[in-house]
Amino acid sequence: MILAQSDALLVIDVQNDFLPGGALNVPGGRNVIAPINRMIAIFPHVIVTQDWHTPDHSSFATRHPGKAPFDTVAMPYGPQILWPDHCVQGTPGADLAPGLDARRAGLLIRKGHAPEVDSYSAFLEADRTTRTGLAGYLRERGIARLFLCGLATDFCVLWSALDARADGFAVVLVEDAVAGIDRDGSVGRALAIMEEAGVSRIASGAITGSPDPGSP
Ligand code: VGL
Ligand code: ZN
Predict the structure, then answer these.
(1) Under CATH, which number does the domain 7-55+84-208 receive?
(2) Cβ of 151 below 6 Å from ligand 1
(3) What does the domain layout of the chain look like in residue ranges?
(4) Are 93 and 34 in contact (CB under 8 A)?
(5) What parts of the chain have a pLDDT lower than 70?
(6) Per the CB 3.0–4.6 Å rule, which of 55, 96, 170, 205 could disulfide with 210?
(7) What pLDDT, in 10s, does the model give residues 57-80?
(8) Any idea what DSSP says for residue 177?
(9) How far apart are CA 208 and CA 40, in angstroms?
């Protein structure tokens, strides 16, 4: 497909802690890196996000005595799933995956850096009020359509896709360049919610022109 100047690639949270050996391994996470690198090479705009928590972040189960990872607690802004400590600012787990070629990225957005508020979304923190500035950047750069890839389909990719739609951007999910945590069918639910919100889907090969593995 032909990309326009108004198209951007949004690469969500391809960080060591979400890969095998990391604190919050996303199954199949490593498989997203090759197609993402192929896309980074050809998009007119590339934006990368990084989950970037304080060491005592309120989304960590260790902050809540008696709670375990994947339990849910009530926060002032609503229910919060608790996670293993992950993507702590300045630690190797928070680094972008070494295999990710992010050199062409024009913007790196860090999110989840307020100790008491999580942010799955690249646009809006979990208080649903504090903006990251990404929508303003996209508008100033004349970007109208976002191709989403990265980790995790059912959390940060999902919330970023929904907020992008709510902000009026066209959103396309690159289906072979995402992977999910998938607790209790959460990936299937996330795909249905995104479809309902008008998120379309594409295979990375249809963008990069890589040969279809099924063709002779
Ligand atoms: C994510 C859970 C906690 C994600 C980040 O990148 O999807 N998930 N923090
Ligand atoms: Zn996080």
Answers:
(1) 3.40.50.850
(2) yes
(3) 7-55+84-208
(4) no
(5) 210-216
(6) 205
(7) 999 999 999 999 999 999 999 999
(8) E
(9) 10
